[in-house]
Design a protein that fits this description.
- This protein is mainly α.
- Helices cover 61% and strands 4% of the residues.
- The chain is built from 27 helices and six strands.
- The chain has a six-stranded mixed sheet.
- A hairpin with a 2-residue loop joins strand 4 and strand 5.
- The radius of gyration is 27 Å and the shape is elongated.
- The relative contact order is 0.09.
Length: 547
């Protein structure tokens, strides 16, 4: 009965925090392009691996091919994965209860009550699915000794590693574990892993041309940032503080203060190693801007340690119940240390932001996007966008979309040298010249793009109205603009503005004319063959521009 209660609590908790993260729509665009025959790409013709969840994205594409919308499939897959993890934990709770008495699903109830587990049960991201696969690999490693079980563990952890590359850490821990307790099954485990991971990795590398996903470079994964990462871990345990009891309880199990069977001790050590190694890795890379997201995968391991400790160290049933009540109440009612309006070292409660500010905005964003789709269809339109506009890009379907504040889907932006540490995950800002001159995008909609690219210093200010959707033009493309005008768009008449400026130009100081000409040049003259207007400027600025 208590087991069913844990599943029910988890289901209600996950549904109560249902949401869709903007990052999910990046994966949705990849999946849509794949289904439409354009390849697993963000922009047609550009093979850039701008995601870290290959298997999950392929699952989204498969669902789309079957007619299931990604907005339904992705959060549903996450919720099912979360419930499956709870089911595995119920089995671990039964295995931990070797002392007899009242058997309580200690670990399952703690995870079922955990708000962070609820948050990332949906969201449209791979977090819950990755967590399930990693924990299933652990369970298989601790179940009996047949070679086929070890091979299955390796295969499952291969799937975890293809769902998120850092799953390879659990494989390393599994190899170390079997080296000490199960060397005869080591080859079976390695074989189960390699038979899936090697072919998939070879295909991925041959397709994208890189071993690491583009996101590795965009997020500076090769650089250590311990101070930020330790802050991330500390904030995580401000809410998950009851699970800190797992560590001293595990120590008591291993120090011989109890008569724990050897297999229970080994399971505890493996869970501790998997949680510890993964947590150390997350601390090294600086964590994430989303509170708790990167540490959710260690929750079932900590819950297992807690369950083993409670069942092994605390023999009186009332003591177990008391500790369980405190732990469940602690994780369920301890407030999150950050929120939508209260950041800590750039870390925010992303779900709180969406829950408070986004419901009405998301409806409006989709309406705007579907309106834009009519203007973009069939045209080689390029859009510069901010990460929070991924939903708009997915629904509007521009031919080219350049994310300007993280570089997730752009190889050049992602590989820029990091000059200073900024908000984690948002440190690679696109160079204005790259976006304007090389990518030659047409329009932007979010004010953050203008701020990050310093557009007021780069190009003349020209606005466009797409049937009520306001945007900023980033370059003058006569053919595209003519097509937009035929579809009902209205925009600033820049040629007329140029004529007016040329008539008044002699009244302005040299420095101002040079500055304004450079803005007109980037926006207009670099894209339009207009020698008469260009010569009018060139006669004035000749010899004044810095060489």
């Amino acid at each position: 009965m208590a087991g069913w209660a844990a599943l029910a609590i988890g289901l209600v908790g996950g549904l109560s925090r249902f949401w869709l993260c903007d990052d999910a729509f990046i994966c949705f665009r990849y999946a849509k392009n794949l289904v439409n025959g354009n390849g697993l790409v963000f922009n047609v013709g550009e093979r850039v691996e701008g995601f870290t969840n290959l298997l999950f994205t392929l699952g989204i594409a498969a669902a789309m091919k079957l007619g299931v919308r990604p907005e339904v499939f992705a959060p549903a897959a996450g919720l099912v994965s979360y419930l499956a993890t709870l089911h595995l934990l119920l089995g671990e709770d039964r295995s931990a209860d070797r002392a007899g008495g009242v058997a309580w699903p200690v670990g399952a109830l703690v995870l079922a009550a955990h708000p962070d587990a609820h948050t990332f049960a949906t969201g449209g991201l791979e977090t819950a699915t990755f967590t399930f696969l990693a924990f299933l690999g652990y369970v298989l490693l601790t179940r009996g000794d047949p070679a086929r079980t070890r091979a299955a563990a390796g295969a499952v952890l291969a799937l975890a590693s293809l769902t998120r590359p850092d799953g390879i850490l659990f494989v390393v821990v599994g190899l170390a574990y079997l080296t000490v307790w199960g060397r005869s099954r080591l080859l079976a485990f390695a074989g189960g892993f390699l038979v899936l991971w090697i072919p998939a990795t070879l295909l991925r590398v041959s397709y994208y041309g890189d071993f690491f996903p583009n996101t590795y470079y965009a997020k500076s994964g090769g650089l250590a940032w311990w101070s930020q990462g330790l802050t991330y871990v500390a904030l995580f345990f401000e809410r998950s503080w009851p699970l800190l009891l797992a560590f001293p309880l595990t120590a008591l199990v291993w120090l011989g203060r109890t008569e724990a069977p050897s297999d229970v001790k080994r399971r505890a050590l493996l869970a501790l190693a998997m949680a510890g190694v993964y947590m150390s890795y997350i601390a090294r890379v600086g964590g994430d801007f989303m509170y708790a997201r990167m540490l959710v995968p260690i929750l079932p391991f900590l819950a297992t340690l807690f369950s083993i400790g409670v069942h092994t160290v605390l023999r009186p049933p009332l003591a177990r119940v008391a500790v369980l009540v405190v732990a469940v109440a602690g994780v369920a009612f301890t407030p999150c240390p950050v929120s939508a309006t209260r950041f800590e070292s750039g870390i925010t409660d992303e779900w709180d932001f969406y829950h408070r500010a986004r419901p009405a905005w998301e409806v409006e964003e989709r309406r705007r996007a579907l309106s834009l789709k009519r203007f973009f269809e069939g045209l080689p339109v390029g859009v510069a966008f901010f990460g929070g506009e991924a939903q708009l890009v997915y629904y509007a379907e521009p031919f080219l979309a350049v994310e300007c504040t993280t570089g997730l889907t752009d190889r050049t932006i992602a590989r820029q040298p990091l000059t200073e540490r900024r908000r984690v995950g948002h440190e690679k800002i696109a160079a204005p010249a790259y976006v304007l001159s090389e990518r030659r995008v047409h329009v932007a909609f979010d004010g953050d793009v203008a701020r990050y690219l310093q557009l007021s210093l780069q190009i003349t200010d020209a606005r466009i109205d797409f049937d009520g959707v306001q945007g900023r033009l980033l370059r003058w493309d006569p053919e595209v603009l003519a097509a937009w005008a035929a579809r009902g768009a209205t925009f600033t008449d820049v040629p007329s503005r140029l004529d007016a400026y040329i008539r008044e130009m002699d009244r302005f100081p040299d420095e101002r004319v040079v500055f304004e000409y450079e803005k007109f040049r980037r926006f207009y003259f670099d894209h339009v063959d207009d020698p008469i207007r260009r010569q009018a400027f060139e006669r004035r600025v000749k010899g004044l521009r810095p060489q």
